Amino acid sequence: MIHSKIIGFVILFFSFFCFENAETFIPGARYAHSVTLVDNKLYFFGGQISEINQGQELIHIYDQLFYLDVSSSFNIESPSWTDLTASKRVPVRSSWSTSSVGFGIQSSNNHDKSTIYLIGGLMYLINQNALVTDVIYAFDTKSQQWVLPVINGTGPNRRRGVQAVSDNTGKIYYFGGNSDYITTGSPTANVTRYNTLNILDTAQLSWSIGSTIDAPSPREGYSATLFINLIIFIGGRENSYNGQPFSLVNISQIPVYDTQSSKWYLTTVGGANVSNRHSHSAILAQNDLIIIYGGVSEGGVPAPQQLIALNITSSPYQWIVPTTSYLSLYAMPPPLSLHSATSVGKYMIIAFGNITNITRSASLSIYLLDTTNWTWVTTFQPSNPINTVNIVVIGAIFGIAFFILIIIAFIVLYIKLRRRNSPNFPPTKTSPPSSSRNSISNQFPNPQEIMPESYDVRTTYTRPRSKPNPLLKPYSTLANT
């Protein structure tokens, strides 16, 4: 029957509506990626994985762009990723790059810090094993568009091992790093480390160089954290003078750059005895502690104390080795390097990275540290859950209203089709009851009383042709209502 087809159509529609987004995006394992937080969205760019094939190391570099919405709660086993790669992928395959937020390039948002600048690192053509000549790309999070910015001044050459930070004035600080045969594409290129501080003014789209007086030694693989107007550089690798490829920077001798006075300072740190490291991560927590996770120590082994903290409110600064707890075993991260860490509310969100104690093994997980009690947790709760609840409630109301409208439409269609297929619809025409002429004259006025004299009462009365019934629509029309 026709109404059975309609039922099937409605079921098919609901199946499509409810399950079209059932396929969940899960990013693959990676390390040396870039991450930046803008408007409650944690954007991830690129990254790479490596494997050994027939004795050769093969590296796959991603062009993926996806984000994690931190305005709503999630569990680390099933975070709600949103993939933008299909339409907004990174214009190049990118790894070892650094990213930081600045003012927009478009005139409509050039005073809104909503544009992410992806700088340096390895940038390859999408379908070719060739480095691009451009060193910087910009992603406008408002318009969801990539822009190749035209910047005045001389910027840095292609480097890796850099951690950029930005301040409230829209300036991005890009210190040190190294160039080698990978960043140059030349097999004969030597490793060169830098100690220049390149400054990108995103409001003016211009490069400049910070003070070189008392600048620290050339280095890469450090962490950089902005505290008010101070950039605090921790750890990393520097040039070696004993014939080794590099030496680890003394983690208790910390260079600090003052963005207001444009001066360098060297701070000696007290407190706990912590190990030197490179390729670690660092965040500024709500309690004004710089929390560091992971890193590689001497001999390429994981740093002995994976989690350490720097108290920057004391004078001198003090190292702390917190005692942590965990809610479950899978909440604790493995030893990591070349991962990312972001401060969101009371949480330190650690993502991906190289599992340092397993050769060429990358992580595909994220981890949460509650910095208020040093507990590794499994569930993220946003700092402003009221707004999140309101959004969920509004969405649920609209969803229920839409569902009710569909049900009502289905019921109406079903009733119409049932009436259409009923043997008594349209109603069967019946003949008037057999009666005398007098009985008919008793039911109707005398035509001569209401008609002009010229009107011929013997004219045959014809029943008016029935108008089209608006309820009797073709099936094709019903299916599209």
Automatic annotation (TrEMBL):
The keyword Transmembrane applies. The chain crosses the membrane at residues 391-415. Residues 1-22 form the signal peptide. Residues 431-445 have a biased composition (Low complexity). It comes from the Eukaryota. Residues 424-481 are annotated as: Disordered. Keywords: Kelch repeat, Membrane, Repeat, Signal, Transmembrane, Transmembrane helix. Pfam families: Kelch_KLHDC2_KLHL20_DRC7. This is Galactose oxidase. It comes from Gigaspora margarita. The lineage of its organism: Eukaryota, Fungi, Fungi incertae sedis, Mucoromycota, Glomeromycotina.
